[in-house]
């Protein structure tokens, strides 16, 4: 047993090829300016540090206070991509944005606040130690201090392109779930792109399909954090895979990776099946009620992921039959399942237990095959 474990550790270590070095911020900024260092657009949406946090980081660089490293991944074309350290990297880019973007200030998609738009120069706030930093910008800061910032050194850990796709995927997901401000689906999308897959872009396209958006009827907050994309992934996952873990996020990670590397063929036929599922749903429930619980004979409350597993997956697995049903028939089927003891048990306490996750998909499959 111990020999097998040692062999496995040795094998997996060879899958991750890293290099560590220190670099001046001026060098990193120049690489970013000429697009040799990149930030995935979806990952960039995760820049959410407050102005106070940004100011504290600038202060740390000026005072030579040690800061955590930046993680980069080497792409097949030799360019580098930021995979951890987004808040710190974006803070410095934003402070020097006037010289990096040469005065251009277009909106960064998905970013509403000026303080998180890296193309809008930073006006520093009050700092804990250097109180004189307040209201300073790159243009008003003394040149001596600007040089101190530019020549400040940061440790860089580079994930080499020789690393396996799975290693890159795992490194990104693990790094970015440590105190992250990104949603799980944002992390999955960036990880998939890092492994060279276009599946994340296909999810984004599907997430704009009116039938999908309207049938889910998610809050604006959930839509911004890629809740629609996660629901689509969830449908594909429970419709085609069996979870081997009790953690839902791990199961969805595994499915995202499997599709990204081509282990599961997400063909045009599969895409159409996903869209058809939601078109059937929205015809029966035009007001986005299909995935809500019923109370006093009325649909109420918020979107329920557990009901989604039963209803959406059940229709998906019986799509040919459900497409032939009249909307009223489908609506009655959904209403009736709310009174079923099995449905109540599968959507109640402990619903993320592995057997209940499997049970919801199986219940939905059997329920919508009736008739």
Explain this structure to me?
The protein has 2 domains: 18-161, no CATH class; 181-367, no CATH class. The chain is built from 20 helices and 7 strands. The chain has helices at residues 2-13, 25-33, 41-44, 51-62, 86-95, 97-100, 143-151, 165-176, 184-194, 199-206, 210-216, 220-224, 227-240, 248-260, 268-284, 305-317, 319-324, 327-337, 341-346, 354-367, and strands at 18-24, 37-38, 70-74, 80-84, 153-159, 293-295, 298-300. It is elongated. By secondary structure, the chain is α/β, with parallel strands linked by helices. Residues 27-190 form the GmrSD restriction endonucleases N-terminal domain.
Explain the layout of strands and helices.
Layout: H1 2-13, E1 18-24, H2 25-33, E2 37-38, H3 41-44, H4 51-62, E3 70-74, E4 80-84, H5 86-95, H6 97-100, H7 143-151, E5 153-159, H8 165-176, H9 184-194, H10 199-206, H11 210-216, H12 220-224, H13 227-240, H14 248-260, H15 268-284, E6 293-295, E7 298-300, H16 305-317, H17 319-324, H18 327-337, H19 341-346, H20 354-367
Parallel strand pairs: 2-4, 3-5
Antiparallel strand pairs: 1-5, 3-4, 6-7
Helix pairs in contact: 4-5, 8-9, 9-14, 11-15, 13-14, 13-16, 15-18, 16-20
Compose a concise summary of this entry.
This protein has about 375 residues and is of the alpha/beta class.
Shape: elongated
Number of strands: 7
Strand line-up across the major sheet: 1-5-3-4-2
Distance between the termini: 53 Å
The whole-angstrom Rg is 24 Å
Average pLDDT? 87
Portion in strands:
5-15%
Count of individual domains = 2
**What structural category characterises the helix and strand content?**
alpha/beta
Number of helices: 20
- Uncertain residue segments: none
Largest sheet: 5 strands, mixed
């Amino acid at each position: 047993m111990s020999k097998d474990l040692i062999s496995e550790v040795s094998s997996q270590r060879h899958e991750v090829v890293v290099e560590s070095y220190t670099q001046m911020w001026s060098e990193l900024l120049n690489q970013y300016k000429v697009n040799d260092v990149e930030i995935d657009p979806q990952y960039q949406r995760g820049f959410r540090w407050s102005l106070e946090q940004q100011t504290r980081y600038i202060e740390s660089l000026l005072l030579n206070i040690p800061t955590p490293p930046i993680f980069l991944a080497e792409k097949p074309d030799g360019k580098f991509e930021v995979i951890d350290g987004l808040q710190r990297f974006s803070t410095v880019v934003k402070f020097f944005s006037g010289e990096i973007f040469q005065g251009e200030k277009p909106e960064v998609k998905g970013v509403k606040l000026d303080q998180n738009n890296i193309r809008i120069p930073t006006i520093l706030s009050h700092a804990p130690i250097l109180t004189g930093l307040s209201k300073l910008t790159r243009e008003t800061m003394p040149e001596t201090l600007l040089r101190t910032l530019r020549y400040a050194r940061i440790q860089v850990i580079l994930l080499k392109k020789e690393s396996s796709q799975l290693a890159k995927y795992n490194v990104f997901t693990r790094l970015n779930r440590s105190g992250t401000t990104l949603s799980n689906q944002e992390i999955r999308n960036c990880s998939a792109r890092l492994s060279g897959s276009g599946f994340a872009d296909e999810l984004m396209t599907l997430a704009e399909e009116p039938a999908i958006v309207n049938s889910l009827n998610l809050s604006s907050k959930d839509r911004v954090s890629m809740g629609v994309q996660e629901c689509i992934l969830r449908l594909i996952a429970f419709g085609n895979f069996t979870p081997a873990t009790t953690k839902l996020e791990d199961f969805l990670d595994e499915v995202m990776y499997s599709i990204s590397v081509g282990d599961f063929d997400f063909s045009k036929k599969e895409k159409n099946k996903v869209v058809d599922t939601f078109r059937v749903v929205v015809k029966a429930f035009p007001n986005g009620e299909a995935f809500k619980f019923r109370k006093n004979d009325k649909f109420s409350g918020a979107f329920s992921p557990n009901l989604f597993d039963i209803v959406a997956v059940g229709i998906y697995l019986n799509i040919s039959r459900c497409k032939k049903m009249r909307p009223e028939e489908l609506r009655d089927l959904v209403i009736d399942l709310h009174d079923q003891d099995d449905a109540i048990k599968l959507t109640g306490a402990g619903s993320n237990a592995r057997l209940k996750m499997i049970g919801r998909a199986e219940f939905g499959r059997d329920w919508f095959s009736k008739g």
